[in-house]
Structures are given as structure tokens and as C-alpha cells.
Amino acid sequence: MTKLPNRILLTALLGLFLAVPGIVCSQGFDAKTLMRAQQRGQTGSMYGTNPYEQTGEEGEEGQEQPQDTTKKERRIRKPLESYFFSDSVRALNNFRWNVKREYNRVEIGPLDTTLTDWRIDYPFYREEVGDMAQGALGQTSLPMNYFRRPQFFDFSFASPYYAYIYDMENVWFYNSKRPIIRMTYIESGQKRFREENFNIMHAQNISPSTGFNVDYKARGTRGQYIWSRTKNHNLAVAFNHTGKRYSVHAAYYNNHIEQQENGGVVGLWAIADTTFQMPSGVPMKLSDAEAQNTYRNNAFFITQSYALPLQRVTDEDFSLADLSTVFIGHSFQYSSWSKVYTDKYAEYINERGHRDDQGNFVADTMQYYQNWYINPTQTRDSIYERVISNRFFVQAQPWDRNGVVGTIDAGIGIDMHTYSQFEMNDYLTGKYTKVNKTSYFAYGSVGGKIKKYVDWDANLKFYPSGYRGGDLTIGAHLALTGYLRGHPLILEGRFSMDRRSPNYWQENLFSNHFVWSTPLSKENETRFEAKFSVPDYAFEAGAWQGIVNDKIYYGSDSNIAQHNGSVSLTSVYARKDFRLGGLHLDNRVLLQWSTNQEVAPVPLFSAFLSYYYEFWVVRNVLRLQIGLDGRYNSRYYAPGYNPALSAYYNQREIEVGNYPYMDAFVMGKWKRMRIFLKYQHVNKGLLGNGEYFSVADYPLNPGMFKIGISWGFYD
User: Fold this and answer.
1) How far apart are alpha carbons 340 and 644 in whole angstroms?
2) Distinct helix (H) and strand (E) counts, the chain
3) Are 442 and 469 in contact, with CB atoms under 8 Å apart?
4) Lowest-confidence range among 286-300, 420-434, 502-516?
5) Cα–Cα dist 547/126, whole Å
6) Alpha carbons 138 and 134: distance in angstroms, whole number
């Protein structure tokens, strides 16, 4: 009688001995190990289950079900196997990425559902210390940091809207375990002056490797100041498949912008020395001229690649990231832009135009544009540009994608440009003149990493002939990562050298107010960048040094100009976020120097400071932030903005700055919902010199109350 219980006990101990190591080891399995186990049929509990595989049968648990011999055996649904994504990225419930235009690479960006910076509703204020801006949502801006300023070769008229518009490299692609819908709505001000910011995004995966998403944004204002209404609509519809061998990214995007152009205030006195009952009473230069810009952009792109493994692929190989592989691919893009600028002849009155002999102000009657080349009473300048791009590339992965030499890339491309505008001889033909140009180029890169300590890459792009013939770009990047008590310390260095042609519109323009046809020399620019960061302690410091020869810019009269010589620019940036319990003191500071402020004007000092207190109202349910945001830059000759050219120009008449612009906010996160209440420009009339400008002649918005809500839906 004693042998039977002993045998049962021995069997149980033996089973426990065999099961426990499997259970313990399974806690450290990555996606590759789980996939191999599934392929071998080892789908028991000690190896975990496929998150995409639905299990369970009808009927009560433990009840034996009759076997159905008529059903086919269901194929196991494979998880995400793409070489683009590491195991740590695959482990995320949701993530997103952008596709690179010329290389077989993607750039990962996790979905942000935290409170960090969400209250900053103007997109051009989110990076570093932010931008100088016309003032309202949907209007143009230019980064304070010279080295962040966009350089659009294709349709440069859209570059002042860079923070809003979609292009090929900022369309997002998503991978989500469950369908996502996220809605955001922000509004402010009285109904007749209201700003509105609406965004809806839907992302869904058809399979672990295949998904699509739709992202729509509508942003604009009815205008705090007279004739300053804006409409900014942006749509992106994207599809992606990132399989083991074949990948494809395709998207259609549309940008539509309408902006009423008031030309700025008739004089600084209208903001600094005079109190108007309503902002709409402030006199503006082009309000009677009814100037307006309308931009339209339609674009489509598709990038495909296919892998040719140089080693035998076995069932144990979860992806091709660890195998010698060659990828071949093609990228196609079609993009068309148009801009229509309209106005009518109208003078404006500056009531404090000059002083007489007794020192009294005398009104001046003035006109905004000095020249009316085509029509002396009204303007309708229409400009069109189209680009069709093809790129064929090969990427070699000699050993391991994360090896010392991870990837070697090479490619060739052809861009076909079409430009159209009105010219004098079009009076005879009745059709707008079209100019076609074709550019050819070759490019390549090489990069790799040494474990988790060193990342490096180098790249080159050259235009041997045709349009842009002789243009050259060389770049290199090195990142060193060390660890102190488990915290990463990252030191990065970058180098770039560009020899670039002027774009078509910088050399050729015929419009009602501006005409030029001037050959320009190529710009030559060399940049160095160094950056040190400790992400776990919210610290980073960086420095840029650049030398530009033959810089092209818009002069004080808004005409195109080129500097015959070199300009040296230096930027130093630092960020440190301090935390004392629930108190957060976030600081971003930028220092800049230019050897020629008339060619490349920059403020000496710029800062963004955010001080707030964060705490739980209800633990793990409702979290709240209460605080202040402040922006400031030192006084300098800030650029002006010319509506007819859609360009920032260098003026030397008006200095702006030395004004703190502050917002008070309350922001909370309740489960999947985020909400904020904010009073923008809370210090108006209380603190500062009264000159709240960041661009010459264009005042920032006066005080206004804002409310915003963002809600995420899953399944």
C-alpha cells in the first residue's frame, strides 16, 4: 500500500522538475525564440501563446468536445517578422514609424499618450525653443535655431508651413495590436475670432505585418486681427506591409492652405503705445488690399523592397536581420504644388509716419508694394510646380544588420521637374509657360554598430550632370553610448558638407510685384554638430558650427540676393528638466552667433521655460499638471515676412524681442482622455515692454482662453 503513494509522489516531483525550468526560461524568451517554438509545434504553456492566435472552443471548460473531421487544420498566424523592427519594438502594443526616401530604412517613433508637451497646440513651438511666427495657428513660422531651418529645394514657397504640411518622410505608418482611433479638438476665443484645431487618426492592422491608417488635421483661425483668417487642411492615407522578405510603404497625402495676408501692423506704436478695444481694431497694412494666398498639394508615393538571402533561411530564423542578405528596391513619388496670390491696389495710412519740425506726429499715406508690373489695380499670381521622382536602390547586409558593418547602400535616381508661371509672352499664346528640367544623381551610404556602444554611418549623394549638375552632399554620424549605473550616456557627432544649386524660383520669377531672372552661384555649406545627452535625467547639450559661402537670401527689399563671401554661425543648446517631488522645472536655452547679421540674422539668446506641479488627484485614474510656460528671445533685427513671395526676408529697420510671452495652464489625464485649460499670453499688459512680436511687424496673439481634449479609442 505504501509503494503506490510513493510512486505517485515520485512522478509528481519528476514532472515538476521538468516543468519548472521551462517556465523559468520562458520568462526571458524573445519573439524569435517563441516563433521557433511555434514552428516546431511546441505551443504549450511553457512557451507562451501567439498573441494573434485566438484559442478556446465552444462549450464548458473541461468538457470533452467531439472531434470534427470535416474542418481543415487552421494555419497559425505568424507574428511580425520584419527585419525593420527589433524585439524591443515588436514588444510594444502600438508603435509608428516614417519611411526613408532613398534608403531601405525606417525611423521608429512610439505613440505619445502622456501629458508631456501636449498642451503646446502650435506645432512649431514643440522643438527646442520653438520658432519665430506670424502669430496664429495655421500661419507661417521659422525656427529660432538657424540649424533647424528647413531648406526646401522643391516648391520653396511651402517651406514657411513646414510644421503643418505632410511630405514623404513625415507621413506616419502604424503597427497596432488593436485598432486605434484618436480624436483631438482644441478651440479658443470668441466665435467670430475662434481658433480651431481638429485631428482624427485611425490605424488598424489587417495582420501582424500589414496595416493601414488615415490621419486628418484641420487647423486654423478666424483671426484675432483684421484680415488674418487661415485654413489649413492636411490628409494622409497610408498602407504598409513589412513582411519577412517583401515590404511596401504607400501613401497619398494632400495639403490645402488658405491664408488672408494683412501684411502686419502699420507701425509698432499700434501694439506698444496704443490700446484698442478689440484686436480687430489694430490697423494693418494689407487689410484693404484683401491679399490672400492659396496653396494646394497632391502627392502619392510608394516604396518597395525585396530581400534575397545569401544564406539558407530555416524555420528557426525569425527574421532576416541576422542573415547575409541583399535587398533590392524602388521608390516612386509624384507631387504637385500650386500657389495663387491675389490682392488689389490699396494704400494704407500710418498715423505716426514721421514727426514735423515741432516734434508732432504726421500721418503718412503709403503702399505696401512698390512695383505693379502686370496689372496696376489687382494681382493674381499663379505658380505651379510638379516633381516626379524615381529611385532604384540596392542594400547589402553583409553579416548582421546590427553588425560592425550592418548595411551598405547604393542607389541611382532621376527627378523630373515641371515649373509653370505667367510670363509676358503668354499674352500672345494664352497659355502659361512651362519649363521642364531633369536631374540625375547617385547616392550611397554605409553604417553599422558595435553591440550597444557604437553607432556609425556615412553617406554621399552626387549629381553628375543635368539640372543640379555638380551638386554634392557628404555626411557622417558617430554615436558613442556608455552606461553609468544602468543609465545611458550618449555622445554624438555629425558632419555634413553641401554644395547645392539655387532652386528654380530663386533664379526665375515673374509676378505682379517681383520680377527677376538672375543666374546664381551654388551655395557651399559645412556643418559640425556635437551633442551629449543623458535621457534618464532629461539632460542634453549640443553645439553646431556652420560656415556658408555664397549664401542666397531675400534682402531688405524682399528681392533675391546672394552674399559674396562666407558667413559663420554658431549655436549652443542646452536642456535640463529638474524635478523636486511633484514640482517640474523644465528649461531649454539657445545661444547663437552670426558673423553677418544682415545675411543670417539670429537672436543671441532664446529660451523656453516650463514650470509646473504634477500630482495624482485619484491614484492611477486622474493625473493633473498646473503651471506656466514662458518664451523669450533677446532683441535683434528679426526677419520680416513678404506675402507675395511667401518668404522671410532680412530687414534692418525694426528690432523685436526682449518680451516674455507666457501661458498659464491646467492639464489632466483621465484614463485614455487628455484635457487642458490654458490662458495664452497671460502676461499681456502686465509684464514686458508691450512689443509682443517675434517677426517684424507681425504681433503675436493677444490674451485668449483655450480648451483642448484628446481621446483614444481601442477596439
Assistant:
1) 9
2) 6, 37
3) no
4) 420-434
5) 27
6) 9
The per-residue pLDDT for range 240-259, each reduced to its tens digit, is 999 999 999 999 999 999 99
At position 290, the amino acid (one-letter code) is E
Euclidean distance between CA atoms 503 and 154, whole angstroms: 7
The angle subtended at Cα 27 by Cα 24 and Cα 30, nearest 5°, is 135
Query: 330 has which bridge partners?
Result: 304, 392
User: How far out from the chain centre does Cα 298 lie?
Assistant: 18
For the chain, percent of residues with pLDDT exceeding 70: 89
Give residue 314's identity as a one-letter amino acid code: T
CA-based nearest residue to 515, from 668, 370, 628: 370
Give the closest residue to 160 by CA, choosing from 139, 130, 137, 144.
Answer: 139
Q: Answer yes or no: are the C-beta atoms of 523 and 516 closer than 8 Å.
A: no
Q: Are 604 and 572 in contact (CB under 8 A)?
A: no
Residue whose entry in the numeric block shows the C-alpha cell 494693418: 284
Query: Among candidates 494, 487, 502, which has minimal Cα distance to 536?
Result: 487
Interatomic CA distance for residues 413 and 422, integer angstroms: 30
Mean pLDDT for 304-313 is 95
Tell me the three-class secondary structure of 647-682, residue by residue: EEECCCCCCECCCCEEEEEEEEEECCEEEEEEEECC
Answer yes or no: are the C-beta atoms of 131 and 159 closer than 8 Å.
no
How far is residue 429's CA from residue 545's CA, in Å, rounded to a whole number? 50
**Dihedral (CA of 274, 275, 279, 283) sign:** negative
CA distance 518 to 516: 6
C-alpha cell at 52: 494573434
Percentage helix, strand, coil, to 5, in the chain?
10, 50, 40
Among candidate residues 377, 644, 643, 387, the one with its CA nearest the CA of residue 510: 644
Q: Grid coordinates standing for 536?
A: 534618464
Instruction: With beta carbons less than 8 A apart as the criterion, state whether 476 and 497 touch.
Output: no
Grid coordinates representing 525 are 555649406
Report the candidate in 127, 186, 197, 138 with the shortest Cα–Cα distance to residue 676: 186
Mean pLDDT of 186-215: 93
Report the share of the chain in percent with pLDDT over 90: 77
**What Å distances lie between residue 657 and 141, 143, 148, 283, 691, CA to CA?**
16, 15, 20, 21, 7
- Cell numbers placing 266: 502699420
Q: Which of 272, 285, 276 is nearest to 349 (CA)?
A: 285
Nearest residue to 471 (alpha-carbon basis) of 547, 415, 516: 415
Q: Are the C-beta atoms of 394 and 326 separated by less than 8 Å?
A: yes
CA pseudo-torsion sign 82, 86, 90, 95: negative
Query: Which residues are CB-neighbours of 532 under 8 A, at least 6 positions away?
Result: 489, 490, 491, 492, 540, 541, 542
SS3 of residue 703 by DSSP: coil
pTM, 2 dp: 0.88
Radius of gyration for the chain, computed over Cα atoms and rounded to the nearest angstrom:
30
**What's the rounded Cα separation, in Å, for the pair 540 and 619?**
31
* Sign of the Cα pseudo-torsion (697, 655, 552, 495, in order): negative
Cell of 578: 529638474
| Number of Cβ atoms within 10 Å of the Cβ of 512 | 21
How far is C-alpha 356 from the chain's CA centre?
A: 51
CA pseudo-torsion sign 213, 142, 255, 224:
positive
Please tell me whether residue 1 adopts helix, strand or coil conformation.
Answer: coil
Contact 633, 606 (CB under 8 A): yes
In 449-578, where does DSSP find H-type helix? 504-507
Phi then psi for residue 68, to 5 deg, are -100, 105
The C-alpha atoms of residue 248 and residue 518 are separated, in whole angstroms, by 42
Cβ proximity of 471 and 428 under 8 Å = no
Strands (E), 314-360: 325-344, 348-355
